[in-house]
Amino acid sequence: MVQIVSGTKGKGKTKYLLDMANNAIKTAKGDVVYLDKSIKHMYELHNKIRLINVQDYPVDTTDGFIGFICGIICQNHDLEQMYLDSFLKIAFLEGQDIEPALTHLKRIGEKYHVDFILSVSLDKTAIPESAQKDIIVSL
Q: What is the pTM of this model?
């Protein structure tokens, strides 16, 4: 499953995502991973949540990012949820069509039973129509 937290820059999406992750770990039966563009929020996350700074890895395309996600999943068979902060930036989708990447994530999530929660710096109206039902909150 893919869930989207949408809103323009500076509207509180990261705070919302951090709170979601911290609440999810309380009842999670598996592991929770948080992907970001830095380690800035390390101390705001529960210590059972694995923070991955995508900038530390040689990922520079959307396809490479999807492969990176698959690598994380194949190394962690208990992965339950993955939070992706600044999704457009870490997935190299700024100014691009996000629909193909969302479709890939949905397929991966269904196959490996991983929920993806994305922070997307777009107004709700800029999210593709096929993903409108995946928006859980628009800030």
A: 0.92
Which strand ranges, in their side-by-side order, compose the sheet holding 50-53?
50-53, 31-36, 79-84, 115-120, 2-6, 135-138
d(CA 31, CA 88): 24
Compute the distance between CA of residue 65 and CA of residue 10 in angstroms, rounded to an integer. 24
DSSP the chain: -EEEEE--TTSSHHHHHHHHHHHHHHH-SSEEEEEESSSTTGGGS-TTSEEEEGGGS---SHHHHHHHHHHHHHH-TTEEEEEETTHHHHTT-TTS--HHHHHHHHHHHHHHT-EEEEEE-S-GGGS-GGGGGGEEEE-
Q: What single letter denotes the amino acid at residue 75?
A: Q
Cβ atoms of 53 and 42 within 8 Å: the answer is no
Please give the structure tokens belonging to residue 30: 């598996």
CA 57-63-65 angle, to 5 degrees, is 30
**pLDDT tens for residues 22-78?**
999 999 898 999 999 988 888 889 989 999 999 999 999 999 999 999 999 988 888
Q: Are 20 and 117 in contact (CB under 8 A)?
A: yes
